[in-house]
Every structure is written in structure tokens, then in C-alpha cells.
Amino acid sequence: MPELPETETIARDLDGAIRGRQIKKVSVRKADVLREVSARTFAKRLRDARILRSWRRAKLVVLDLDTGDRIVVQPRFTGALLIDDGHLKPSELNYSTLKLDLDDGRALHYADVRRLGTVALMNSPRFEEYSGKLGIEPLDRAFTAAHLSAVLRATSQPVKKVLMEQRKIAGIGNIYANEALWRARIDPSRPAASVTLEEADVLRGSIIGVLREAIEARGTSFRDYRDARGERGGFVEKLDVYGRGGLACHRCGSKLVATHAIDGRATVMCVRCQH
Questions:
Q1: Residue 92 is among the residues annotated as catalytic for this protein
Q2: Which residue is catalytic, options 56, 59, 99, 183?
Q3: Minimal CA–CA distance to 138: which of 110, 109, 179, 82?
Q4: What are the phi and psi torsion angles at 191 (to 5°)?
Q5: Domains of the chain
Q6: Of the listed 106, 232, 251, 265, which one is catalytic?
Q7: Is 265 a catalytic residue?
Q8: Distance of CA 232 to CAs 159, 179, 227, Å?
Q9: Residue 59 is a catalytic residue
Q10: 104 partner at 20 to 30 Å CA-CA among 21, 153, 190, 215?
Q11: Do 156 and 191 form a contact (C-beta atoms < 8 A)?
Q12: Is 168 an active-site residue?
């Protein structure tokens, strides 16, 4: 967390709120979140830069600057990009690691309780190199059933683990891998190579469907995720399996099984529905 729907929500919020704004001052409070740049260089290169747009790549939030640099944020478990217009509660900024003061009086904070997330500053060639190592975007047209089938046929690892491999498919994490596999009626522990082209087609539709629905609900909040306005995502109320171990399957009524045996992550499935 956050996964594709959450970072997409954050990126869209930021694009609507701060596109075109100029960074007037940079304050780095916890330099250990920075990557590929020192706090001093980070502040120097950002000062007076203008934000051209905000967008998402995989689980990253990317801010394009008119200098050619890109701010690349990976929130991981507890990171949040928050816009402070004077109405955020002081407690929400207790864990601010860095602050960008904008030319309209507002500020953009990167807050992170556990400081497991990262903020990098990359020039265009470095970003292209970094992004090129990530897999296909599941909401792109190129993510076809044939493409997904080829990815799955290439390995005997559990299909759930393959869906979460960012170098193969970018943006899917544990929550939405669980949900998509339940929708597709596929056992998460099945060897990926055993998934037929027909099943891959159904799985592709399930992945796209659950991601789009989660974006519409502004993401899933269990504990830490907040959007750029500091608000919680609403998709948690629509989850079919994740976080529901021991409860009844929404499809057949059987008791859902929770396990960590497949890939060391929490997996919830219906042994009756998923094969």
C-alpha cells in the first residue's frame, strides 16, 4: 500500500490542485527519505521550479518540473502527499519529512510515519532508465489477454506472486491481486504457467475491472492511506476477499480461507470457488 488505485488518486488530485504552481521554498526535515540526491541539492534544484503535471507510473507519483527534473515519490506503507491550504489538522503534519512552499501560499508535504517511502529527484534520462525496468501498465491498451498469458506462461511461480511482480506488471499489489483472482475464480497458488489463454482473458478483465472500480472509490483505506486531501478511500467497503478471512464468500457462502503460505503475504481465497 498504496497500490495503483491509491497512487492514481493521489496523482490526479495533485494534478488538479498544483499543476502550474511554482516552488518557492524547500524544507527537508528528514533527509533519510531522499534517494539519488542530497537534501541540499534537492532544495537547490527545486527552488523556483514550476510543476508541469502530476501523474502515476506503477505505484509511483511523478511530478514533472519545467527544469526537466522529475520528483518521484514511492509512498509504500505509510507515505502521503498532502496539500496544506491552512485547513489540515496540525496532527496530520506531525510526520512531515519535507515541505514545498508554493507561490500561491499553499504547501505540499510528504508525510511518512515509518519513513519507509522514498522521494527521488531524477533527470529525464535517469527516469526513463528507471521506468524502463518496470512492467506493463494494466490499464494500458497493450495489456491484452495475449500479453498477460505470455507473462504467466513464462514461469511456474504462483499466479498471485506473478501478478505482483512489478517488473512484469506494474501497479498491482496484494489487495488487488487477491480481489482479481477471486473475481476470475483462479486459485492464487496455481502455477502461473497452468493458466490457459481463456482464463488469462477472464483474469485480465477482472484486473482491469477491480482497478477501475477502486479508482472510482478513490482507493482502499485500512489504516494509513490518505489521498492528497487527507481523506480515506472508500473501496474497503467493496472488497470481496482481502481482509475477510473466516467470513462467508460473497459468491457461494463458503468460509473464506486466509493464509500466508503462498508468497509470505496475506492471501484470502475461497477454496470452493477458486480452482
A1: no
A2: 59
A3: 179
A4: -60, 130
A5: 4-132 (3.20.190.10), 145-269 (1.10.8.50)
A6: 265
A7: yes
A8: 30, 19, 6
A9: yes
A10: 215
A11: yes
A12: no
